[in-house]
Design goal:
The complex is a heterodimer of chains A (about 350) and B (about 290).
Chain A lengths: L19 H6 L4 H17 L9 H23 L7 H18 L4 H26 L3 H24 L13 H9 L1 E4 L2 E4 H19 L1 H11 L1 H6 L4 H26 L12 H11 L11 H20 L7 H25 L1
Antiparallel strand pairs in A: 1-2
Helix pairs in contact in A: 2-13, 2-14, 3-8, 3-9, 3-11, 3-12, 3-13, 4-5, 4-6, 4-11, 5-6, 5-11, 7-11, 8-9, 9-11, 12-13, 12-14
Chain B lengths: L1 H12 L4 E12 L2 E12 L3 E6 L5 H9 L6 E6 L2 E3 L4 H6 L2 E4 L11 H5 L14 H15 L15 H14 L4 E5 L7 H16 L3 E6 L2 H7 L2 E6 L2 E7 L5 H9 L2 H11 L20 H4 L1
Parallel strand pairs in B: 3-8, 3-9, 6-7, 7-8
Antiparallel strand pairs in B: 1-2, 1-4, 4-5, 9-10
């Protein structure tokens, strides 16, 4: 092909090799890393208890509570969808396991299995309805959000007569399940809650899936251009439904942590508003609201920012009422940094 | 490619057998009949051009062959076997690759990830074999005469011609027997169109059956062996290259008498009104303020 617009054999000198620095700056998680560093330094200077190594475990725990759910939520956002029901689905997960085990006097693990099945079904329903109707996921999951919120309170009141589920702490299998989901251990003076370990494992696994496997490639593709993905044979429906079911699984997992960390009692009104925290963590971590771009590691850093701010505000001796305002500012700053840094890096 | 060579030898042994054959195919969306009684044969080593104005049913026709929509009347057969595609995957699995007008590439994904999208190579534990995929992508693109030095670049940053070539190279690499090109030159400049047209001929010479959809009769006549003109969802003309001239084809596409009527109409326009005045007489534009 002898053509004037392209030379097949000659060396193309239009693109010079980019420095490692520039390549690093074009990663999606860079904005969140810069933000995390700034916040870390800020609180290290302004809040004395923040410098205490004993508090590191508490900060990480706060981050992990959001971070575990930020993992599937960021995957889902890369896949081009939202899940507003993710927050209350966590409560549904905890409640179902508790109520089923208590009402039928079953082993706690049986209640957990029923709860897992329900959580996956909720994800399946969200994904199926979305694919079936073609409605935006914002609307579909807003519907599920209200349904779950109502059902959580109504069923809890029906079965226990109160707004919290009956305690299952003296039932068979409770201590074993607690060891898995809500135990803690000492590591060089830091009290490490087991969910932090799970969180790190989940982030590593999801990051590997997203960047290094076929399924990850498909997630990027269905979020970037679903029609193009379908045309080359990517099973778009399966990928999207699978992503919603992944959110379901993690909602169940976080629900278990909720159940076993509070002595087998779950407050039915919990979880409302948490879905936004997951989305904030994912967006701060570099996920585009339009899909097709983002990072699981970034979302984890986003959750870490959340954990640091949440406790930093308290440690600095400020009124915790300011926390939400601070969080909003963080969200805006991190996304702007994301945008600016990305533009600069691409322009190099 | 071994696969492509395989098809080439097949094609040599039976040059006239249609790979894809449509008989009386129709498609209706509710009460709208987008396509009626269309018959079409795609043979290996031949370029079949499907021409038509906007809304003539070209897109509907490719969508049926590509498996995006199922036809509602008539028969579609691949290698003599009647088929009814319900997904693009089925169409692809029977050797039909489609390169769409809107490119079918995810803009934010890198070149090599797009090239292997849906056909990823994996190592142990399902890990992507990025090194091998990048190497193959680079080799295939170089073969076509486009060099993209940074395969990690998102395809959204490339030019239309480069993207079109990536999509075509991908289809050929993955062993397509039939290549359907939906207006590949529509959004391209003259030179880039040339590159794409040359590549279409290359694909034909490799033994592929090519369906080239376009509304540009000049591009079609440069490469086509067979021409089908669609009008309002029906076949208006079906002829071999030997039986038609470019002028006739252009005329047929524009709808002969309609074009004549149009040229009459345009003749009525006062051409002087748009002619630029001579340079020695500079045009002065008066501002509304000056005139008061």
């Amino acid at each position: 092909m002898a053509s004037t617009i392209a030379t097949p054999t000659g060396v193309d000198d239009r693109v010079s090799t980019r420095s490692i620095g520039a390549r690093l700056l074009s990663r999606p998680e860079i904005g969140s890393l810069v933000g995390a560093a700034v916040i870390l330094v800020f609180f290290l200077i302004s809040a004395a208890p923040f410098r205490d190594i004993n508090n590191t475990g508490t900060i990480l725990y706060g981050a992990a509570l959001i971070g575990v759910m930020a993992v599937p939520v960021s995957l889902l956002m890369v896949g081009g969808e939202f899940d507003l029901s993710a927050g209350v689905a966590v409560t549904t997960g905890g409640l179902t396991a508790g109520i089923v085990a208590y009402q039928f006097s079953l082993n706690v693990w049986v209640g957990m299995a029923v709860s897992l099945a329900l959580a996956l079904l909720i994800g399946l329903f969200n994904g199926w309805l979305l694919m079936r109707t073609g409605l935006p996921s914002f609307l579909v999951t807003l519907g599920t959000f209200f349904i779950l919120q109502g059902v959580n309170i109504a069923v809890t009141r029906l079965t226990s007569g109160a707004v919290a589920s009956n305690s299952i702490s003296d039932m068979d299998g409770f201590s074993a399940a607690k060891a898995v989901f809500a135990s803690e251990f000492k590591l060089g003076g830091i009290t490490v809650k087991i969910i932090i370990v799970w969180w790190i494992l989940f982030v590593a696994l999801a990051a590997w899936v997203l960047l290094k496997t076929k399924v990850g490639n498909w997630i990027f593709a269905v979020g970037g251009d679903a029609a193009a993905a379908r045309a080359v044979g990517v099973p778009v429906k399966k990928v999207k439904i699978g992503l919603f079911m992944t959110v379901g699984f993690f909602a169940w997992f976080t629900g278990m942590q909720l159940l076993f960390n509070q002595n087998g009692v779950v407050q039915s009104g919990e979880g409302v508003g948490k879905e936004f925290l997951y989305i904030i963590a994912a967006v701060v971590g570099g996920c585009l609201l339009t899909g097709g771009y983002g990072s699981v590691v970034g979302a984890a850093v986003g959750a870490l920012i959340f954990g640091m701010v949440q406790l930093g505000v308290v440690y600095a001796g400020w009124n915790p009422d300011w926390f939400k305002a601070f969080l909003g500012v963080m969200l805006l700053l991190a996304t702007i940094v994301n945008l600016v840094v990305k533009k600069k890096a691409d322009a190099r | 490619m071994t696969t492509t060579k395989g098809f080439a030898s097949e094609a040599a042994s039976s040059p006239t057998t249609p790979v894809v054959h449509l008989e009386d195919v129709g498609k209706s969306y509710g009460n709208i009949q987008a396509l009626r009684g269309v018959s079409l044969s795609v043979r290996q080593g031949e370029i079949t051009c499907v021409l038509g104005d906007n809304g003539a049913g070209k897109s509907t026709l490719i969508k049926i062959i590509a498996g995006l929509h199922a036809h509602t009347a008539g028969t579609l057969s691949v290698n003599g076997e009647e088929r009814h595609f319900s997904s693009p995957r089925e169409s692809m699995d029977s050797g039909i690759a489609t390169v769409y007008q809107d490119l079918a590439l995810a803009p934010l994904m890198s070149v090599w990830r797009n090239f292997f999208l849906g056909n990823e190579l994996t190592k142990a534990f399902g890990t992507l074999d990025a090194t091998r995929m990048k190497k193959i992508t680079d080799g295939e693109l170089t073969k076509m005469g486009i060099s993209i030095p940074n395969l990690e670049q998102p395809v959204g940053m490339l030019s239309g011609g480069q993207r079109q070539c990536i999509a075509i190279a991908r289809a050929i690499y993955f062993g397509a027997k039939v290549l359907i090109l939906d207006e590949p030159t529509a959004a391209l400049g003259v030179k880039q169109s040339g590159v794409v047209l040359k590549y279409i001929v290359k694909a034909r010479d490799a033994g592929l059956g090519v369906v080239f959809i376009t509304h540009n009769p000049h591009h079609a006549y440069l490469v086509g062996n067979h021409f089908v003109v669609l009008k309002l969802g029906r076949v208006a003309l079906d002829t071999h290259r030997a039986d038609i001239t470019l002028e006739q084809l252009t005329n047929e596409m524009a709808g002969g008498s309609e074009l004549e009527a149009l040229s009459h109409e345009l003749r009525g326009i006062d051409a002087e009104a748009v002619v630029v005045r001579p340079a020695d007489e500079p045009v002065r534009i008066q501002s509304p303020l000056e005139s008061t």
